[in-house]
Amino acid sequence: xxxxxxxxDFSDNAKNAAKYAFSIFSDEEAxxxxxxxxxxxxxxxxxxxVSVTDIIEQDSRKGIEKQLNELRGKLKNPDSxxxxxxxxxxxxxxxEKVAKKQxxxxxVMGTKGSSGLMEVFVGSxxxxxxxxxxxxxxxxxESAEYKIPKNIVFAADYGSLKDVSKLTALKEIALKxxxxxxxxxxxxxxxxxxxxxxxxxxKLNAFFQGVSLEFAFLENDDIEAGINEYIxxxxxxxxxxxxxxxxxxxxxxxxxxxxxxANHVKLPLLxxxxx
Length: 275
Fold this sequence. Notes:
Elements: E1 2-7, H1 12-24, E2 31-39, H2 47-72, E3 81-88, H3 91-101, E4 106-111, H4 117-121, H5 125-132, E5 137-141, E6 151-155, H6 168-177, E7 180-187, H7 195-207, E8 212-219, H8 223-233, E9 238-243, H9 248-253, E10 269-273
Parallel strand pairs: 1-2, 1-4, 2-3, 4-5, 6-7, 6-9, 7-8, 9-10
Antiparallel strand pairs: 5-10
């Protein structure tokens, strides 16, 4: 039984992400959904702060129980189950800790803002979880509505993957829904695919055997703008990327937050890890 971790702060945004998770992981297969809320204690030795701490902890537990009651009615498979965890500590560290302890197969969490690529990742809890979690992270923009993912774009830079099996989650989703995966490579103008990149493309082609696979190449000196351009001109239901700690992800997202793109991505975004 796969475990789906659902971090929550009880906001509409977090609830929408949980709703999406219940939609995409709700079928004949049974799943274990784990709702987790973290709370931090105010630093003080006074009795007043001790009282406030008790209230914060109680609110967390009450919030978990309330959301659990809402979610239990959405379980379609009688063998699936939903559980709740209230934990003390900094959000990112606690999510990482719980994900490891619960052996999470996916972490599904919401993102705020206008949901452009920059807003999704820069300065958010989701960003930090993505950079530290081992499990695949499915980031759901607050305005996203569930839609069967029939067309998935995998924004690949064709850099050498340390372990191609890290893409298993993407392959499973594609097979589950009979989706087509488009391997998108955004190249700078004038660049051409070299032999090493061609070999990596063949490796990916072999790994995704059984999946409807397409290749797309697009010239744009700005990778983010290139991805947006492709998404704007094509029917896309989900975007997938690889986080390697360095290189592609860093080049893509370590930009000025003020640099906005014309078309904001409002798609579920699956981030896989190659470390």
